[in-house]
Amino acid sequence: MKKCLIWICTIACIFGLTACGSERQLTEYEQYKVENAQLYATEGVMPLLAGFMAEDAKGIFDEYTMEEIAYQVQLLQYQLMGQVMFEADGYAFYSAIQSFQSAAESIGAIQSIGGTSAKIDGDQIIVDVDVVGEKKNATAEVIFSNDRFLVMESAALNPVSTMGELMTAAALNTLIGMGTVFAVLILISAIISAFRIVPVIQKKLADKKAAGQASDKGEGIENAVAQIVGQEEADAGDDLELAAVIAAAVAAYEGAAPAEGFVVRSIRKRR
After folding, report:
1. Which pLDDT does position 125 carry in this prediction?
2. Is residue 191 over pLDDT 90?
3. Backbone angles phi, psi at 25, to 5 degrees
4. How far is Cα 105 from Cα 101, in angstroms, rounded to an integer?
5. CA 58, 140, 88 angle in degrees (round to 5)?
6. Three-state secondary-structure class, residue 139
7. CB 27 within 8 A of CB 77
8. DSSP alpha helices (H): ranges in 22-130?
9. According to a count of CB atoms within 10 Å of the terminal CB, is the N or C end of the chain lower?
10. Would you say 84 and 78 are in contact if contact means Cβ atoms under 8 Å apart?
11. What are the residue ranges spanned by the domains of the chain?
12. What pLDDT score was predicted for residue 21?
């Protein structure tokens, strides 16, 4: 019984993972909107934006308001196609013109429009259009609102890099990465080499400090000796004065004996 339950759970997990990996099937209404978005992108948006890729078309809407640009988009559709196929946000169409004009420098003029693919992403429908350019190919991404109005919310033309350009970019990235690594290694080696100089500098500073301390100590000793000598000389002068006084006192006591006949051998202080 347990083995059967294990097998049933395993099979259920497998089918669950399979269901998670498969794409969600579009409803009939969603498929209808996706097909219309692809049609609007290839027959409405791309022809209009391709006309603004010329050099003389730059800055044509710079002084227009966003509402005026949205109105001009409808007017241009009516003039070129005889009907208004889609609505466009003014700011979105102005940004799309800037993107197409920037891409014109690398891909040249649009020669033809290839296949399309579309998907629903939340409240948006994203349409990718293959573009064959004069110099190189590109991919246009046109985004519509996911509702019955299908308002164009964004559009951009992205050049497709060739294999040579991809290899060149990869080589540059490799060189930059390796150069950065070698630069860091060289810097680390220089720092490690500098460690051998640090003890030498520390020793020189220590010797200089010790020499300064010794000089200060010698000056201190000389000052102390000078003070001691000065004190002894002062004491000797005091002793001579005291001896003279004692000799004079003894001479006075003895009467007429001259003071020069007396010699004071030592002086002792009594407590």
Report:
1. 97
2. no
3. -75, 135
4. 7
5. 65
6. strand
7. no
8. 28-40, 46-51, 66-81, 90-107
9. C
10. yes
11. 2-160, 197-261
12. 47
Place of tokens 């209404």: 29
Assign a CATH topology to domain 2-160.
Answer: Nuclear Transport Factor 2; Chain: A, (3.10.450)
Has residue 227 got a pLDDT over 90? no
Q: What angle do CA 147, 152, 155 make, to 5 degrees?
A: 135
Residue 140 has phi, psi (to 5 degrees) of -100, 135
H helix intervals, the chain:
2-21, 28-40, 46-51, 66-81, 90-107, 163-194, 197-254
Nearest Cα neighbor of 129 from 38, 192, 44 is: 38
Cα distances (angstroms) measured from residue 23 to each of 26, 195, 206, 263: 9, 62, 77, 134
Element (H, E) at 142: strand 138-145
Structure tokens given for 117 = 């693919």
Residues 112, 86: Cα–Cα separation, whole Å: 21
Q: Across the chain, what does the average pLDDT equal? A: 80
Torsion of CA 230, 236, 238, 240, to 10 degrees: -150
Token pair for 48: 């209009």
Taking a C-beta distance cutoff of 8 angstroms, is the pair 73, 48 a contact?
yes
- Going by C-alpha positions, the residue among 174, 139, 188, 146 that lies closest to residue 32 is 146
DSSP state at residue 196: T
The closest alpha carbon to 148, from 73, 225, 86, belongs to 86
Name the residue with higher pLDDT: 192 or 22: 192
What integer pLDDT is reported at residue 90 of this predicted model?
A: 93
Instruction: List the structure tokens of 269.
Output: 């202080």
Contacts of 83 (CB under 8 A, 6+ apart): 77
